[in-house]
Amino acid sequence: MTLLYHRLMTPNWLDQNATFNCQRTVQDLELQISTDSSKYENIFKVPLLKRGVLKSGQSDVTIRIKVGIVLPEPARPRRDPILFMASDGNKFAMGFQLRNPSESDYTTKGPYYGVDGEPGRILRNYAKRSTDVPVRERVNPDQFEILLKPSDYWGSIYSALDGGHKLNTTFASTLNLSNGLWLDVYRVDVVETYIINYVEVTVYEDSPKC
């Protein structure tokens, strides 16, 4: 197993290094994202690996994304707050959408679900890729851990809800890794705001077969 990328992205680091498509306010411990003009709009993106570092169909990687986030109180009920995804820049993105715990979503639909689509300023061809798995608790767990395995079209997300809650999913396609690798974060609706405490991303190239 070879480490290809690791970064703990603090609010100040994101402010200085991510490419943003919206207004934000930065404090030492918080990155607050303001409302914007379009649904499914890219909030920010971060390049992880340059074009040519990996080869599509040959490189076998695992992507780990750990997120510390304060979920919003939406202006209207039943809003799905935010998406954390890995993308190849312009062809495909895969990841998870985090739901809003202040409504009944957690206990009726679950706290999150798999999503894929075509990356860009707006996430196009958005599609839900997992079934709903409800939980009993309606509190914000504050931290979410995402695992993505592009070669297997596979993803998993975990949180501390109900003493430990995990959801696995499969995606419709894979990433064109030879084009590079990005972290993409999208909003779902226009009027929501978000507070991000940190994002930690690690990319490994897995060991070859014996």
Structure description:
The chain has 210 residues and is mainly beta. It has a single domain (2-205), classed as Jelly Rolls (Sandwich). 5% of the residues lie in helices and 46% in strands. It is built from two helices and 15 strands. The chain has helices at 11-17, 105-108; strands spanning 2-9, 19-20, 24-26, 31-33, 42-49, 61-70, 82-87, 93-98, 112-118, 124-128, 143-149, 154-159, 165-170, 181-187, 194-205. Strands 1, 3, 4, 6, 11, 12, 13 and 15 form an eight-stranded antiparallel sheet that branches. It has a seven-stranded antiparallel sheet with strand order 2-5-14-7-8-9-10, covered by helices on one side. A hairpin with a 5-residue loop joins strand 9 (112-118) and strand 10 (124-128). The longest helix has 7 residues, at 11-17. The two termini are 13 Å apart. Mean pLDDT is 87; it is low at 74-79.
Which properties best describe this structure?
210 residues; single chain; 7-stranded antiparallel beta sheet; Jelly Rolls; 8-stranded antiparallel beta sheet; mainly beta
Brief description of this entry?
With 210 residues, the chain is mainly beta.
Can you write the helix and strand succession as a string? Answer: EHEEEEEEEHEEEEEEE
Mean pLDDT: 87
CATH architecture: Sandwich
What oligomeric assembly is this protein in?
single chain
Largest sheet features: 8 strands, antiparallel
Structural class: mainly beta
CATH topology call: Jelly Rolls
Cα-based radius of gyration, to the nearest Å? 16 Å
Report strand %. Answer: over 45%
Give the number of helices: 2
| Uncertain parts | 74-79
CATH class: Mainly Beta
What helical percentage do the residues reach? under 10%
Globally, the shape reads globular
The end-to-end span amounts to: 13 Å
The counted number of beta strands is 15
